Amino acid sequence: MELLERLNTAVEYIEEHLDKEIDYNRAAQIACCSTFHFQRIFSYIAGTPLSEYIRRRRMTAAAFEIQRSDIKIIDIALKYGYESPTSFNRAFQGVHGISPSSARAEGAVLKAYPRISFKISIKGDAEMNYKIETKEALRIVGVKEHLDMKAEDCFKRVPEFWAETTKSGKIDQLCPLIDKPPYGVLGVSIGNYEGQVFDYYIAVSTDKPLPQGMAEYEVPAGTWAIFECVGAMPNAMQELQKRIACEWLPTSGYEYANAPDIEVYPEGDLQSDSYRCEVWFPVIKNRS
């Protein structure tokens, strides 16, 4: 429950700064988690990326001002953080389907996106098998992709990265290197906790020398909630991650730790409905 309360307080900060600069790091600090994890949790629970939520709320507020005042549209654009009429017009039309000037006409049809409020919702219609384990540090070796969280296209880009890595033959190069648990090919999300970007590794756990053209990283020792995932990839994994954030985390007595998320893919048919893998969520006990 503390997680939802902190998220609502972070939303209050965002609402108070719709006509000012919104500092993602400050919002994450209010929510007591990293910027990287704040954006992920917000997206999972709200069902929309944080940047899109802010854009919709700003355009909702801008529409109200356009209709009820004589303030110049350029001044309203500046108020909500748009330095040019062109960028404001593009954003406004993207939300409302009409130009800002057309919104002043009587009978203009506009969209309103209300302020979000996080509340607990316990479905209980499907079990989640998990265990809490503390792990020693592990070294991973593989290939990595640098992703910008503001683009918020991770659900699309990560499967593409897997497809490209498989096609290039690099996964076949990685598998013989596996000599330490967790046994399997790993998907590891390593956030930049002071910003809005992260590195995604396709890698293996190994003590063997670093192959040319690949990268390595040491995952620090920590505690993870390890969930079993059953189903065809990537949909089963993405759905489980959403359920963990929306259903398990708010009432678990744990919160997100500033450590990598790890997906563990053992050998098998990833497109099978019975394929089994794991997702490791880094956790710490609630501090309150």
How would you classify the helix and strand content by structural class? alpha+beta
Biggest β-sheet, characterized? 9 strands, antiparallel
CATH architecture of the largest domain: Alpha-Beta Barrel
Q: Would you state the CATH class of the largest domain?
A: Alpha Beta
Q: Please name the fourth-level CATH homologous superfamily of the largest domain.
A: Regulatory factor, effector binding domain
Order of helices and strands: HHHHHHEEHHEEEEHEEE
Give the terminus-to-terminus CA distance: 11 Å
Number of domains: 2
CATH domain topology of the largest domain: Multidrug-efflux Transporter 1 Regulator Bmrr, Chain A
Please count the beta strands (DSSP E, at least 2 residues each).
9
Helix content: 25-40%
Strand content: 15-25%
Helical segment tally? Answer: 9
Task: Point out poorly predicted stretches.
Answer: none
Q: What would the principal axes of the Cα set say about the shape?
A: elongated
Radius of gyration (CA) equals 22 Å
- Overall mean confidence score, pLDDT: 91
